[in-house]
Design goal:
eight-stranded mixed sheet; 10 strands; alpha/beta
Length: 164
């Protein structure tokens, strides 16, 4: 039996919409990222989805959902969403937009409503782990829920993660 984790804005968002999800707490590691959480939980990092807060050339925030073992090609992303450029937000800016601490960012229940883009291959997975709104806490859901709950727009901007 998995220990229940207290409510977060993300899990409240899911519960309010009667979404069934599984809870996956793990020992958070600073800068460990999705590769650490995947290893800690015994999951393929390809099915552990990172929630990245980025911004366009006008500093308008957006959310990108990406495989845990892939990086975002900001050039490809910008081209696909009609932006001149896209870059990661500084952690304190990302925290302000999302209402979550970096490392605990969930696409659900964010402070600001932002456009959400998802690497299209994530939608083909049977189940994903995605942040539940707290460091060291992922929730398991059907990735199609990202479409119905968040209105995500599929993109193709994944680059293989270079480990080193």
């Amino acid at each position: 039996m998995v220990k229940h984790v207290s409510l977060t804005p993300a899990t409240q968002f899911l519960k309010d919409r009667k979404v069934v999800f599984t809870e996956h707490p793990y020992g958070y590691l600073e800068h460990g990222g999705a590769l650490h959480s995947a290893a800690a939980l015994g999951w393929d990092p390809y099915a552990v989805v990172k929630t990245l807060i980025m911004q366009d050339q006008d500093a308008k925030p957006l959310v990108v959902l990406m495989h845990g073992n892939r990086k975002v090609s900001t050039k490809n992303l910008a081209r696909q969403i009609g932006a001149k450029s896209v870059e990661s937000c500084a952690p304190e800016v990302a925290n302000r937009h999302s209402g979550y601490l970096v490392g605990g960012t969930s696409p659900f229940g964010t402070r600001r409503v932002m456009p959400v883009y998802i690497e299209s291959t994530i939608l083909a997975l049977p189940k994903i782990l995605i942040n539940g709104g707290r460091r060291g806490y992922l929730v398991g859901i059907d990735p199609q829920l990202c479409v119905t709950l968040l209105g995500v727009k599929p993109v193709q901007c994944a680059l293989a993660e270079v480990l080193g």
